[in-house]
Amino acid sequence: MSLRVRTLSSVHRELYSASGGRLGGRIVGMPVLLLTTVGRRSGRSRTVPLTYFEEGESLVLVASYGGRPLNPAWFENLLASPDVDVRIGREVTRMRARRATPEERARLWPRIVATYGGYAKYQEKTDREIPLAVLRY
């Protein structure tokens, strides 16, 4: 992750945490949560702000990483250790994460792109299929 992205993420995370989500709780018209994973190499907690989509009883995260060639670290971390903490506002909930199936992704992707067209641009920039993470209570 570049220093710029890491710095912006850190500032966003701190503003969100300090304000209970009042600051940084929405970006590009979408709600934001704080996802805490366990680092697959370090074993340390890692928290990142991410936009999300609600899908019934689940939350859906897009592992776009701005169209970079590799998946973001948070996605690889949750695949290695799927029990995660999710903070929305001031409430923290333990959830279990998994990669969306190809059928789920095919169904969800049009809705995701309709909500934020930048995801379609990110997909065009990369050879990898941008994966989705599904989180359940």
Main features:
Pnp Oxidase, Chain A; globular; 137 residues; 34% strand; eight-stranded antiparallel β-sheet
Q: Write out the CATH superfamily name.
A: Electron Transport, Fmn-binding Protein, Chain A
Count of individual domains: 1
pLDDT < 50 stretches: none
Question: What structural class should be given to the helix and strand makeup?
Answer: alpha+beta
Oligomeric state, counting identical vs distinct chains? single chain
pLDDT average, as an integer?
94
Count the strands? 8
Radius of gyration: 14 Å
By DSSP (H or I, 4+ residues per run), the number of helices equals 4
Question: What is the distance, rounded to the nearest whole angstrom, between the alpha carbons of the first and last residues?
Answer: 29 Å
Helix content: 25-40%
Strand content: 25-35%
The arrangement of helices and strands along the chain is: HEEEEEHEEHHE
Largest sheet: 8 strands, antiparallel
CATH topology: Pnp Oxidase, Chain A
Q: Tell me, what is the CATH class?
A: Mainly Beta
CATH architecture: Roll
Give structural notes.
It contains four helices and eight strands, in the order αβββββαββααβ. The protein has helices spanning 3-19, 73-80, 102-115, 118-125; strands spanning 26-27, 30-38, 45-51, 53-55, 58-62, 83-88, 91-99, 132-136. Strands 1, 2, 3, 4, 5, 6, 7 and 8 form an eight-stranded antiparallel sheet that branches. The longest helix has 17 residues, at 3-19. The chain is globular, with a radius of gyration of 14 Å. The mean pLDDT is 94.
